[in-house]
């Protein structure tokens, strides 16, 4: 799959009528974690940023040659991967990006159990490099130190078979702080 201007123009023609509606659904979804500094990774032409609520600082990055802010700061309240993860060939390339996130928000197609891949609208060999279940998506983010805090299908309708999820970066010392302090054992006898 070649992600060139023709590809994006085709996507605009097919999807611009729904882009505002979907962007507003996504803003409501991530509003549950109250982020203020957001990176839209894989931003495409910038629909999500275009419909941002007032007061939100939204940075954008995409492999396409669109106007975008790039990666300007070291830490984001939330990094969004809307319709992106199924296109990433090697997730190790995302490690530096994931290290810049307090939260991750994502949307990915999830095949219904009663449907065959060959008949599914999101089965696109060469374009979609990965096919997810909620469990495999959770495992991916757990590998990089995140835990799921919210998931569901808020984009359905208007879309079909799209899971949205938010993951929170786990503080590696949080479990240590929760451990009960052990009392020393008196070995001299009392």
Structural description of this entry:
- The chain is an alpha/beta fold and 190 residues long.
- It has a single domain (5-178), classed as Vaccinia Virus protein VP39 (Rossmann fold).
- It contains five helices and six strands.
- It has a six-stranded mixed β-sheet, with helices on one face.
- Strand 1, helix 2 (47-50) and strand 2 form a beta-alpha-beta unit.
- The N and C termini lie far apart (75 Å).
Compact description:
With 190 residues, this protein is an alpha/beta fold. The chain is 26% helix and 19% strand.
Listing every helix as H and every strand as E from the N terminus to the C terminus, the arrangement reads HEHEEHEHEEH
Q: What Rg, in angstroms, do the CA atoms define?
A: 20 Å
Question: What count of structural domains?
Answer: 1
**Strand order, sheet with most strands:** 2-1-3-4-6-5
Assigned CATH architecture: 3-Layer(aba) Sandwich
- CATH topology, anyone? Rossmann fold
Could you report the average pLDDT, rounded to the nearest whole number?
87
Shape label: globular
Q: Termini distance?
A: 75 Å
Count of helical regions: 5
Taken as a percent bin, the fraction of beta residues is 15-25%
CATH superfamily: Vaccinia Virus protein VP39
Structural class: alpha/beta
Mind describing the biggest β-sheet? 6 strands, mixed
């Amino acid at each position: 799959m070649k992600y060139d201007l023709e590809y994006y123009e085709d996507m605009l023609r097919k999807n611009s009528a729904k882009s505002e509606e979907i962007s507003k659904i996504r803003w409501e979804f991530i509003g549950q974690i109250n982020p203020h500094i957001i990176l839209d990774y894989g931003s495409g032409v910038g629909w999500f940023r275009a419909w941002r609520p007032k007061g939100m600082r939204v940075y954008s990055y995409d492999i396409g040659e669109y106007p975008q802010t790039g990666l300007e700061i070291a830490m984001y309240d939330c990094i969004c991967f809307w319709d992106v993860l199924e296109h990433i060939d090697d997730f190790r390339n995302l490690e530096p990006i994931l290290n810049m996130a307090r939260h991750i928000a994502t949307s990915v197609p999830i095949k219904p159990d009663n449907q065959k891949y060959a008949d599914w609208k999101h089965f696109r060999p060469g374009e979609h490099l990965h096919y997810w279940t909620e469990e495999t998506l959770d495992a991916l983010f757990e590998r990089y130190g995140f835990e799921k805090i919210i998931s569901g299908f808020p984009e359905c309708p208007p879309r079909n078979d799209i899971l949205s999820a938010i993951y929170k970066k786990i503080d590696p010392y949080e479990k240590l702080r929760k451990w009960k302090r052990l009392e020393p054992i008196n070995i001299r006898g009392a």
